Amino acid sequence: MSEPINVLPAIALRGTTILPGMIIHFDVSRERSKKAIEAAMLQDQKIFLVTQKDPQIEDPGFVQLFQVGTVAYIKQVVKLPDNLLRVLVEGTRRAELLGLEQETPYLRAEIVLTDEEEEELPQAMLEAMYRSIRELFHTYCTKGGKIGKELAAQILNCQKTKELIDQIAVNLPLSWQSKQKFLEAGKLSDRYELLGAILSNEINVLDISHDLQQKLKKRVDKNQREYILREQLKLIREELGEDNTADEAEEFRRKARELTASQEVKDRILKEIGRFKITSTNAAESSILRGYIETLLSLPWDKCSEDSEDLKAAWKILEEGHYGLKDVKERIMEFLSVRKLTHKGKSPILCLVGPPGTGKTSIAKSVAEATGKRYVRICLGGVRDEAEIRGHRKTYVGAMPGRVTVALEQAGVANPLMLLDEIDKTSSDYKGDTSSALLEVLDPEQNSHFNDHYVELPQNLSEVLFIATANDIQGIPRPLLDRMEVIEISGYTENEKEHIAKEHLIPKQMEANGIPKGKLSIQSTALRKIINNYTKEAGVRNLERLIGQICRKTARLIMEEGKEKVTVTGKNLSDFLGQEKYNYLMANKKDEIGIARGLAWTQVGGDTLQIEVNIMPGKGEFVLTGQLGDVMKESAQAGISYIRSVASKYGIDQEFFQENDIHVHIPEGAVPKDGPSAGITMATAMLSAIVGKPVRADLAMTGEITLRGRVLPIGGLKEKLLAAKYAKIKEVLVPKENKPDIKELDEEITDGLKIIFVENMNEVLERALA
Question: Is residue 181 flagged as an active site residue?
Answer without folding.
Answer: no
